[in-house]
Amino acid sequence: MQQLLGIAIVLGCVFGGFMLGGGVFEVIWQPLELLIIAGAGLGSIVLGNPRHVLSEMLLQLRQIATMRSEGSEFQRQQLLLMYELLQTAGRGLKALDEHVEAPQQSPLFMRYPLVLKDAKLLAFIVDNFRIMAMGKINAHELEGVLEQELEAIHEELTQPSKSLNKIAEAMPGFGILAAVLGIVMAMNSVGEGASTSYIAEKVAAAMVGTFIGIFLCYGVLDPISNMMKQVVKQELSNLECVKVVLVTHVAGKPPLLAIDAGRRLVQLNIKPSFAQLETWIGTLTAGGGVADSEPGDRGNMGRRKSDAQMAA
Cβ distance 122 to 115 under 8 Å? Predict the structure, then answer.
């Protein structure tokens, strides 16, 4: 809804202001100018980026278009999935293997469909739980490995927005290119004995190319590039949450403290409180969702809450 409101404001103010000033929309509707500018921009994107960057760009544009907003429900599922996996890991490597080797068929993962359909997050969780389950890496080493992996992921995921931003900066230049071609056509008509009104019409059409280039830069592509950065920021926040949970758990902290450490990295607008997190875990445990909870685990919830609050 917010994106649609933004589009309406931009279009209404730019084109509405033009028409209120006495302009006629047909004057600025120049399909050939638009074809030259948009085609040059699209061709530059295809020419300057490898296939995997183009695929990721389309994926991020699709996420923007669908305006995905799982919000707190997504975070609930992610944190509870991590909690169940930590509890399962406490039973040994074999107990964890049956879930991380085939997460799509795992009944544990299937309880959290929003996480299951996020391919990047799912792969990150599964791969690093395998490393943790081997038990041959300490917290410091694991943190170093995950930081390097996240840095590589960040570089790859931000490449589409960087590329789109470069094309946005080039759009005014493409607009000038289209305007020059229009002026050439107008001057050519002078040699053919065209009337003054016809030449003026051609020059005006050529100048529209400059307007289109500037408008596409600041009114379309630059906002889209910024939205793509926000999508990447959300994805990286989810991965950072997983990293902190794993590192805290390997450092010897109990599952509740590890999950709370990850909760703190959730974006502020959707971050659950510790009390809310404890309620989710208590409901999960009471409902039998954590099959491997130790005897007396529910009775220890209050003590673990105190430990978590002291650690905070």
Answer: yes
